[in-house]
Structure formats: structure tokens, C-alpha cells
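Team,

Forwarding the record for the chain on the shared tracking sheet. I've put the sequence and predicted structure together so nobody has to dig through attachments.
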Amino acid sequence: MFGARRTTGRIGFDARLIGALGIGRYISGLLPPLARLLGERLVVIAQPHDAAVVRGLLGSRPQLEFLDAPPYRLAGQTRLPLLLARQGLDLVHFPHYDVPLLAPGPFLATIHDLFPLEYPEIHSGLLPRTVNQALLRHAIRRARFLVVPSRATGDAIRRRFKATSGRLLVIGEAADARFTPVRDGAAEAAWQTRLGITPPYVLYLGQWKAYKNLPVLVAAFEHVRARHPLAQLVVAGDDPRHPEVRRLAARLPPGAVVLPGRLPDAAIPDLYRGAGVVVLPSRAEGFGLPVIEAMASGVPVVCSDLPVLREIADGVATFCDPDDPRTFADAILRSLADPSPSLREVGIARARTFSWQRSAEATARAYQLALDGLIRVPLEEDPGRGEQEDLEVQGK
């Protein structure tokens, strides 16, 4: 366990994306236990408008530096290196691939996925695609360590970037403490009323990008609705670049599909707990945080049959062919008809094997290894077996 050996050296952490979807959940889950472990050694870089959020999460001990330069913009590429150089940091952790090309000193990068390379259409236009791909390649090639959330993501990086051998560290993500099976009927009813949701409902929580495969989910729900006319589909999020989601939803009867937009953060745990089933129809995932959060909330999960989702939910979720809406429809209907209390308990127990505290301890150990220069062999762990505190250094 990391606590037996305190990290020496000053560590920077780029938290400028704390308000974003996906990466923001990663940052807000990992940073509080990291702050407890590192104390004044931790220097957090945030945007000024996030000051209250960051201080609320971290308290007063870590040093907080503000940079009015959003990620993935030229200003960050030019101004962030200057801030880092002034701080004289020994190591910097970038929880994404937007690493300044002129970053001073050694750094770690968390690579959640290779989607800019595998699904370049997520960035509209040749210039954004080219820039994002260049930033991703730069981060992977220059990082002293690459933190990845799953073995599947690590394997994908190894296949494409042979020189990453010995620099990959698998550290799983987790559901935070808000996601529990303890229900609050009044709170659930209040959110459902506000958002126009009526049980039983099927919940999707995530982005609308093409690889998220929402047209297959809507097509599956057409079959569900034919056999369960009271069921409702709730598709959270929004993206004007994907009008096909709204167009397909409009083909169903009024009220069959609810599109509430980006949900208030406070609503999400109660919406999970009130759902009949949570569905993730993606063609690819870096980790699959909604699956862990749903399991922690005691809710059945139906998801695509992907290696990364098998890592975290095998034996708990119902896995489906992402190209076949009917398999999703059948699985959803079975979950609505028979929630399976025993499987619910298995899911809750599995979710508890993932912990932000253990992830932070593993990350802090990676910092120390990077500072010590012990970058000689692969450093990996299995995030699905609750062994995040037992980092294993394996020989080649």
C-alpha cells in the first residue's frame, strides 16, 4: 500500500477538465484521495471558474494554481508550460492527452482510449482530427508512464505503439460514494417529475458520439415498446452534431423517449436507482464508468459484448451484439420482467472491488516510481479483482 512510503517531490495535476463529461468524472473521483495522500506536495492546475468546485473537493492543503486557458486550445499549449516551469515541479500528471508539446520535465498521461485514431469522425473537420491525433501520439510517445483504465485499452495501445512496453499501468476507475443501492423514494420521484420520467424506464447516460451506438438503442427500444407499452427510454446528454438521435426518437409514440439533455449532477444517483435497467450499447469504451455506477446502485445492466466491459461486469451484466437491436430488446425485456435480486447483490459486491482510494494509492506509487526512474518493466494490475493496492512489477 502506498501509505507505507510517502511520495517525495512536488507533483502537478492538470484539473482543467474537471467540469467535463467523462474525464471530469475521472478527475473528481481521483483527486480527493490523491490530495489526502500527497498533501502540500500536490499542485493542482485549474481554470478560474472551477475554483469553488476544486476547493470543495480538495480542501485547503494542496496548492491551487489558476490558468485561464482551456484544454485543447492554443493558449494552453503556450501558457501552461510557462506555469509549470515557474512552479519547478518534479513531475506532472495530465489526466488526458492534451499535453503541451513543450511540456517541461517528466510527466504521466492518462490515456482513456484511442478513439481519435479509431473513430476520427468524432472530431469534425480535418484540422481538429489532425491536431487531436498528433496530441495523442505525442502524449503516448513522451510520457514516462501511461495510465490506462483497463487492460483492453492497454492492449490497444500496445498493438499500435510498440515502444510503450514497460510504461503502461492499468488503474481502474470506480463509482464514487454517492452510488449506493440505498433508495430515497421522495428524491427519485422529485427528479422523475421534474424531468418528465415515468417508471419503468430504461436509462442511457453518456455522450452521443457515433461509437456510442445510440441508433441501435433506439431501434431496440422500438421492439421493447411493442411488447411493453408502458416502458420509457431516457437518453441523457445531447449533441447537435448527431440529430439522428432526436429524429429516430421522434418516430416512437409521444412520451416513449425522454431526452432531458445534460443531467444535473445531483440527479444522477437517484436516476440510476430508479431505473429498471441501465443500457450501454457502445461499439467501444475505454472503461465503461456507467456500468460500474449502475452496479453500485443495484441496477441491472445490459451492455455491448466488449472485452473492456467483460473485464468489469462479466457474470453481472447481460452482454449483447452491438449490431443487433433485437438482442438488446430481449435483454432489456428480461431485465424489466425479472430484476434478479441475487444478481443485484453480485453487482453491488463487484462494484465495491473498484475504489478511488486504491486507484489514488496506485497512482501515487506510479509517481514515486517515475521519480525514482524505475521505468524498466511493465507495471500492471487487474482493476477487476480489487487488488489495486498490490501493484505488481512483472518481468518481460
